[in-house]
Design goal:
Distance between the termini: 27 Å
Shape: elongated
Order of helices and strands: EHEHEEEHEHEHEEEEHEHHEE
CATH architecture of the largest domain: 3-Layer(aba) Sandwich
Number of helices: 8
CATH topology of the largest domain: Rossmann fold
Structural class: alpha/beta
CATH superfamily of the largest domain: Response regulator
Radius of gyration: 18 Å
Strand order of the largest sheet: 2-1-3-6-7
Length: 223
């Protein structure tokens, strides 16, 4: 799940970025609202982490502008503001949750999953394709009722293909979804991930299959 983290505190963003990466999130870290707007213009995000006091403006004003433009991405505000009236203003300004600094990364990840779960409840929170069942919030996969353990990177590929099952997913779209701006990605990283994911599916007896559409991308089909 691709995440935009807007905060200018280097130590915090470094620690949180590592923890989120280990939990299956692809994280883009920016320091200013100008950089955040640029990131939103060229990438699609599943969740937003936002500090309020930023070098070039107020994060809450920027969030209000996002909401007025129709962006519904779940947003968690991180702040050292411990005042009831200000917290109410944060929620009224479009935040889905609030976490007081200094943050505990385990609590932050749990809250991120909670807001994603609430967002998913507007539709079916689970994805079923053939005999494969995927819980995008709990990050759990099963095949014909049997749990299947999939490595983090391949799980992200599977999720994106499942969300577009039966349709061609361009290679560039997959790469944009899987990797943050700062990831060092080898030329064949996606091919390696697809190869490994095919192995998981084949060995588990899953009916969905990944087909390569030469020169374009991939499509998840079902036997």
């Amino acid at each position: 799940m691709r995440t935009l983290f807007v905060d200018h505190h280097a130590d915090l963003t470094r620690a949180v970025g590592v923890a989120l990466g280990d939990s299956g999130f692809a994280v883009d870290i920016v320091r200013t609202l100008e950089q955040a707007s640029s990131a939103f213009s060229c990438a699609s995000y599943e969740v937003l982490l936002l500090e309020l006091a930023l070098p070039d403006g107020n994060g809450l004003d920027w969030l209000k502008q996002l909401r007025s433009e129709g962006h519904s991405v779940p947003a968690l505000v991180l702040s050292d503001v411990d005042d009831l009236e200000k917290r109410i203003a944060i929620f009224n300004g479009g935040a889905d949750d609030f976490l007081l600094k200094p943050v505990c990364t385990n609590e932050l990840i749990a809250r991120m999953r909670a807001v994603l779960r609430r967002s998913a409840q507007m539709t079916d929170p689970f994805i079923v394709f053939g005999n494969l069942h995927f819980d995008p919030i709990g990050r759990q996969v099963s095949v014909a009722g049997h749990p299947l353990t999939v490595a983090r990177r391949e799980l992200c590929i599977l999720e994106h293909l499942l969300n577009r099952a039966g349709r061609i997913v361009p290679r560039s779209q997959l790469e944009d979804h899987l990797y943050s701006f700062n990831d060092e990605v080898s030329a064949n990283a996606l091919e390696v991930g697809i190869y490994r994911l095919r192995g998981y599916l084949s060995r588990s007896g899953a009916t969905p299959r990944i087909k390569t559409v030469r020169g374009i991308g991939y499509i998840l089909e079902c036997d």
